Every structure is written in C-alpha cells, then in structure tokens.
Amino acid sequence: MQTPSATAPIQTTCPYCGVGCGVIATLDGQGGVTIQGDPTHPANFGRLCSKGAALADTVGLQGRLLYPEIDGYRVDWQTALDRVAARFGDTIREHGPDAVAFYVSGQLLTEDYYLANKLIKGFIGSANIDTNSRLCMSSTVIGHKRAFGEDIVPGCYEDFELADLVVLVGSNTAWCHPVLFQRLVGSPNPNSLQKGEGEKGCRSSCTTPRPKIVTIDPRRTATSESADLHLAIQPGSDVILFNGLLHYLRSHGKLDFAFLEHHAEGYAEALQAAADTAPNIPAVAVACGVAEKDVAQF
Q1: Which of 35, 103, 232, 295 stands 20 to 30 A from 57 (CA)?
Q2: Pairing of β 69-70 and β 33-37
Q3: What is each CA distance from 260 to 162, 248, 266, in whole angstroms?
Q4: How far apart are alpha carbons 216 and 180 in whole angstroms?
C-alpha cells in the first residue's frame, strides 16, 4: 500500500460520538495534521462539532507516556509485562479469578473485544468484563429486539428532515450528538417546501419551518431549550406518559388496527394496560408531575 504524501487529504471518520461525521485529514509532513469536515459525507455534510474540529490537537505526543514505567522509572516492555502478569497472578491465587475485572473502552474494534474476552473469560476464568458499549446500548438492544425482532435501528438521519414532529426521550442531543442536532433544528420540513425546491439546496439556505420538537426529560437541558415543548416528567413515569398517549390515540380513532393485526403481537393486552394505568389526561399529568395542558398538547 502506498504511503500518503504530506499533502494528500485522507477521508476518515470522527471517532467520538455515534453520528459518524466524515472528516478530511491532511498531513503537514511534520507530524501534524489539519482537520476539516467532509462536505460530501451524508452524516454531517461538512459540519463538525467542537470535539471533531479539535481532532488535530489529539495527534501530538505532548503529555503521552511513550514508554513503560515502574515507580516513575523507564523500563523495557518485558519487565513491565512481567510485573503486570505477576501482580495479576498473585491476586488470582489469593482471592480467586473473580477478584479481577476489566472495564474496556467503547472505542475498541471487534477484534480487540475478542481478545479482551478471551483473556478474562478463557484464560483468567472470570466473567467480570464490562464496557461502555454495553452500558450505553444494552437498553436499546433489548428494545429493538422486543419491538422489531432484531437489534437494528429502524430509521436514518434523513427521517429528521422528513418529519413533522420529533420526540426526544431522555436524550440531550444538543450535547451528545451536536451535528445531528444541528441537522434537526436547521432542517426544513419538506411538507412546507414550495414545489421544485430540492432537498440538498435547502439544507443550508431554506428558511422553511423545521419539525416541531418535544423533549421528555426530568432535566432541562440544552436540547430542551430548543424544543417546542418540554415535558419535565418525574423519573420513572415515562411508561405512564406513553400509556396515556396510546390510550388517547385509541380513544380518538388514530390507531391503524389493520397494521397492528398483521405486524404486532399482544397489542390488545397493551391497549388494555394503557386504559387501566393511564385512563385520561388528568391522571397522566398527576402521575408524571406535569401540567395537564402540557400533556394535552403532547
């Protein structure tokens, strides 16, 4: 493989949040790099948040440990590895394999995860391994499997630009996924576009209304500040809120029973549970600790 020259731009991906913004990195030939957003990338169209824009500051060696050290003194790799192995061995012999636990990064590759699991489960003999990937995504995986039969995201970013209403539940998108949030608050609603206006041409220049945004979060976050409605519900009351919404939709003839019959299981039980736990707007408002008018607006 040919080594890129000092000035050849390299298309890559920002490693931080899950938006997956496209980045163009250009080497300066002196160990540094310049960073800019990739205007052709479908996730960010050239936008970068403060973290992505500062990627060039992370490639320097300043402040990094370049060699192994023990008690503040530089040692060779074999000495360092022997010390780590010996300490692990002593701990396991004295306290058992479950005295060891790994907490690994959410940025590891699949092969890295495989090796880490082989080490602690297959060699050390403990199941004490966890990762930000599981802590962050386990509830999503369960929800997707129960709703759709597999762990798959049933939407795409373009859906924001086609939506009349976006509901964000427990998500501070403005901080956690800044570029995606900018696409949301800056995107036009195509239902209000004049005939003949193209999607790409409107992404940066159109002034048509964006989708309405509802945030459901006990906290008032930066995302809530940009929302049309913020429901600051009591922690743990989200099920009642959505049961109330389901019962309201049923009561007002807004459910597609033909779709439910063909594609959903247990919907009759769900409708009954919704009617029992959230029979009307006042009951939902009391359970969630929010104003009746806000529940009614939602």
Answers
A1: 103
A2: unpaired
A3: 24, 16, 9
A4: 18
